[in-house]
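Job type: complex structure
Entries:
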Amino acid sequence: ETGVTQTPRHLVMGMTNKKSLKCEQHLGHNAMYWYKQSAKKPLELMFVYNFKEQTENNSVPSRFSPECPNSSHLFLHLHTLQPEDSALYLCASSQESGALGNQPQHFGDGTRLSIL
Amino acid sequence: AQSVTQLGSHVSVSEGALVLLRCNYSSSVPPYLFWYVQYPNQGLQLLLKYTSAATLVKGINGFEAEFKKSETSFHLTKPSAHMSDAAEYFCAVSYFGNEKLTFGTGTRLTIIP
């Protein structure tokens, strides 16, 4: 089941480029998340959106700019990234954020980002 | 603050042998606990979750986990390993009123033929 779809799957960009990552969920969820997964580090929560409103920004540098136009779509706009930003970026969704706490998150397959 | 610790970043077991992946949690409030699996080039897939009902939780692919409050543990087991179980496994914790998951560092499971 491809409940959460991320595009592109792979992205190579220079440090001066501007690109966007896209996430779409078909599960009827109201909360969406961006995570960064780097080698040998725990998953890092970046942003949380609940009913299209950003509810958490986990001290993410401003070169990452999220956008949530509706509950089904989430974007991550990238500009002037650094080599250490190379990682797998995962999108997830859940029924709602800050409600029961026991609703699992459903993940997409991620975008593998490489910064040259 | 809540956290999880996964003991062993790499675990190898023979095909057909018992799989045991360890997870200990720290939480000041009753936790909700999750196990996720990540296959190469894929996202995380939910294996099972504990949300304060039965302490023995059965998940997909023959995995199960037991919540032990006295030991603050939520270890993942499978009686007989299969080659297709080779993947990375993540334990995560949340709590009532907050869907924010705190993940462990993961355990890479290798199956020896």
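Summary: Chain A touches chain B at residues 4, 6, 31, 40-43, 45, 48, 56, 90, 92, 94, 96-110 (CB under 8 Å). Residues 88 and 112 of chain A are 4 Å apart (CA to CA).
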